[in-house]
Structure formats: structure tokens, C-alpha cells
Write the C-alpha cells for this entry.
Amino acid sequence: MTETGEPPEDDAARALRTLLSELDSCTVQLEQAKARAEALLAARASGLPWLDVVGSEARPLIVERISTVLGVLSTAGHAWRREQAAALQAEDVSINRIAALFGVTRQRISALLRETTDPT
């Protein structure tokens, strides 16, 4: 325990903090993409042809923002899941129980756990 009475931060907690940070960043990116999509719809509704509407779209394009967000969340989410599985295993939770908690096969959990010891 730390002086504040909290358990020391471990890899799972760090991965979860990273995920939270990425979620905040992605929320901003998605809000920007949403605003841009609304602007494109308004331009189209005003009678502009699609070429003019999308031809004037500034980078990053809506689809580029979405692709970036999906990649970031996939990476951070995977790291969180991997570290969460390792933390549960360190608490002597069985692979079968972890698999049931995650809604995946025990083989998937075994693969996740191998990544924590061999990240290549």
C-alpha cells in the first residue's frame, strides 16, 4: 500500500490510465469529425454538388480521423486487456475464469498472457 492507502500502481493500472487518456483524445477527434460531417451535410443541403462539398474538405478528412481513432483505441484497448489478464492471473484467477470474464476462449487468454512475457 502507498501512503494514501492505495495499492501501488501496476502495469494494468498504467494500461488503464493510458486507455482513459486515449479515450479523451479520441473523443475530441470524433467531435471534430462529427462537426465536419455536419458541415458537409449542410453544404450539400444548400445545393452544392458532392465534388464541391468533399473537394473542399480540409485534412485530416473525416474518414482519416475515424481510422486514426479506431487504430488508437484498438492498440490501447488491447494493451489494457493484456495487462488486465496478466493482473488477474497474478491474483491466481484461472485462465478459464479470465476467458469467461472477457467472453473469449481460453486459447485467446493464453495468447494474451504469452504477449506479456514475449511481446514480439
Summary: The chain has five helices and no strands. The first helix runs from residue 11 to 45.
